[in-house]
């Protein structure tokens, strides 16, 4: 168990990039992570979610499950774990994950973009 009380076995995430039907499906998953999970109001959580976002493309270890469990809140960690399970199960399960996550998590408002746009006005 880690310091948050989560059991995170040494599970490598380096196989995830090979679990998608095609690049389009992977990009859809990445959009959901970027647009709905990675909220810059929590910079630490956002940083690790974006490292996971990269992990979906990379064959080397960008982030570990232990790092995710220490830095990502329980609701979003549960969603990430469900995605990992879906990737390792079937393409249809990934499509279901996308639809479910889009229903549950609203689009995050990018405060940095909005501030920059307001400064230009």
Features:
121 residues, 0% strand, globular, 6 helices, mainly alpha
Characterise the protein shown here.
The protein is mostly helical and 121 residues long. The protein is 60% helix and 0% strand. The protein has six helices and no strands. Helix 1 runs antiparallel to helix 2 and helix 4 packs antiparallel against helix 5.
Indicate the topology.
Elements: H1 23-37, H2 43-55, H3 65-71, H4 74-87, H5 91-104, H6 111-120
Low-confidence stretches: 6-10
Q: For this entry, what is the oligomeric state of its chains? A: single chain
Report the radius of gyration as a whole number of Å: 15 Å
Nearest-integer average pLDDT:
89
How far apart, in Å, are the first and last alpha carbons?
50 Å
The total beta strand count reads 0
> Considering DSSP H and I runs of 4 or more, what fraction of the residues is helical?
55-70%
The helix/strand class is mainly alpha
**Percent of residues in beta strands:** under 5%
- Biggest sheet details: none
Q: TL;DR of this structure?
A:
The protein has 121 residues and is mainly α.
């Amino acid at each position: 168990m880690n310091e948050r009380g989560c059991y995170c076995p040494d599970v490598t995430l380096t196989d995830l990039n090979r679990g998608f039907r095609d690049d389009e499906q992977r990009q859809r998953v990445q959009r959901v992570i970027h647009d709905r999970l990675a909220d810059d109001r929590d910079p630490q959580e956002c940083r690790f979610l974006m490292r996971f976002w990269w992990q979906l493309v990379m064959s080397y270890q960008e982030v570990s499950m232990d790092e995710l469990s220490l830095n990502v809140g329980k609701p979003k960690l549960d969603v990430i774990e469900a995605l990992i399970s879906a990737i390792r199960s079937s393409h249809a399960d990934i499509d279901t994950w996308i639809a479910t996550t889009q229903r549950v998590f609203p689009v995050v408002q990018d405060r940095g973009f909005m501030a920059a746009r307001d400064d230009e006005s």
